[in-house]
Amino acid sequence: MLIGSISISINNFTSLQALDLTSNNLSSALPPSLCELKDLLELYLQDNSFIGHLPLGLGSFAMMIDMDISANKLSEELPASLSKLQMLEYLNLSHNTFVGHIPEQLDHMLDLDTIDLSHNNLS
């Protein structure tokens, strides 16, 4: 089990295509350097204790297919930049404490097959 936070030097893994840190004891905010992994196809960070907001740079994952950041302690509003994930097929952000409205731009994500935003404070 990993404890602590994701290192800000995660961006050194420039060819990384999948990152699975599921069910650890990771906390703190998600580092913006995570968004520099341009080749990332799959991101699994569920069942940790991440806090704060989603990094605004999440929309930079041009080839991302699966993203699961559920069961954390993330809050604030969902960034409209999520809609830039045009290849995304699966998005799970459930069981956090997101607030506000679901961005209308998510309607433009044509490849999205599954989206789970349950157990948040969204309207």
Automatic annotation (TrEMBL):
UniProt entry tagged with the keyword Glycoprotein: yes
Pfam families: LRR_1 (PF00560), LRR_8 (PF13855)
Keyword Signal attached: yes
Cellular localization per UniProt: Membrane
Keywords recorded for this protein, A-Z: Glycoprotein, Leucine-rich repeat, Receptor, Repeat, Signal
GO cellular component, one term: membrane
Topology term for the membrane: Single-pass membrane protein
PANTHER family hit by this protein: LEUCINE RICH REPEAT FAMILY PROTEIN, EXPRESSED, RECEPTOR KINASE-LIKE PROTEIN XA21
The name this protein goes by in its record: Leucine-rich repeat-containing N-terminal plant-type domain-containing protein
